Amino acid sequence: MSDDGPLANELHLLKLGRWHWWILVIVNIFFLLAGQASAVLLGRFYYDQGGNSKWLATLVQTAAFPILFIPLFLIPSSQKASASPSTPSFRVLALLYFFLGMLLAGDNWLYSTGLLYLTASTYSLICATQLAFNAVFSYYLNSQKFTALILNSVVVLSLSAALIAVNDDSGGASGVSKGKYILGFFCTLGASAIYSLLLSLMQVSFQKVLKKETFSVVLEMQIYTALVASCVSVLGLFASGEWKTLHEEMETFGEGRASYVLTLVFTAVCWQVCSVGVVGLIFIVSSLFSNVISTVGLAVTPIASVIVFHDKMNGVKVIAMLLALWGFASYIYQNYLDDSKARRLQCDVDETRNESVCYSFPVDRVGI
């Protein structure tokens, strides 16, 4: 990765006081966690009240991407990426965004299918395997080391998913057969794997193609991939014929037509609020930190779904949640050790250059 992006971020963030920096971090973490949990719960509510269109549920995950233009337009022109000899051509960027957008659309469809057949708590616990897939793909694509803590996280999260897979009691949504529950399980597991691959490919894109990771570049990546994914979802909605049932779906929605529209609108908005938090944490802290918080947020949803939808939490699911939290803790502690080492190295470099500043926040580095 080029040093220009992270260095520019660090110099800009040095202008912020320590408390201002922490406030920004907390606000973005709130956006990410609240947006993610609310979107998943609203998606489950859509299905519970009679919604049945997987492609519509896929579309709302990216359809509100124009919201991201607001922070993009608010960026001072001096902080936006400027053209340089290393800037990729329009054709290269178009192909990159098209490929990642197609992958994102397929991933969202798998998530929507999984949520259709699983309870919100079961769905979120399976999604926790994203961290394990992150570790594997980051090892091969982003040169991240496979330490004992990371290996422990992978094994424990795999055990957590295995427990959910063999759990016969209350794993599926109401009225869902065992076959559809298994389909939902594998769709969600596959979606977690593809999403982790997508994150690693995005990191490779920042390093090898875009060669920078400024706030505006990350935002543009989110916007254009979401645009492609939304177009693919619209095509899927019409090609599958699901669009023909939308009017009837709205008329028969359990809470009424107004609730139907508001559910879709707020689901779309919540996903983009989550995206704002993701992009903010990438810029303020690091892409790795953002991805970890995103995955840790999956532990919030099972608890929220028990409160909102009264999902059953039997002994197997409780053990699976505890294993997932153990896996989270191992992964986060490894990230803490990596950040501490990175800060010490940065301080050593600063001392050799006779610089008086030692950063009090994690520096960006390669890896997801």
The helix count comes to 15
Query: What do the pLDDT scores average to?
Result: 80
- The best one-word shape is globular
What distance lies between the first and last C-alpha atoms, to the nearest angstrom?
Answer: 13 Å
Low-confidence stretches: 1-7, 356-368
Reported for the largest beta sheet, the result is: none
Helix and strand sequence = HHHHHHHHHHHHHHH
Count the E strands: 0
Helix content: over 70%
Strand content: under 5%
Give keywords.
single chain; 368 residues; mainly alpha; 74% helix; globular; disordered N terminus; disordered C terminus
Care to describe what's here?
The structure is a single chain. With 368 residues, the protein is mainly α. Helices cover 74% and strands 0% of the residues. It contains 15 helices and no strands. Helix 7 packs parallel to helix 9. The longest helix is centred in the C-terminal third of the chain and has 38 residues. The two termini are 13 Å apart.
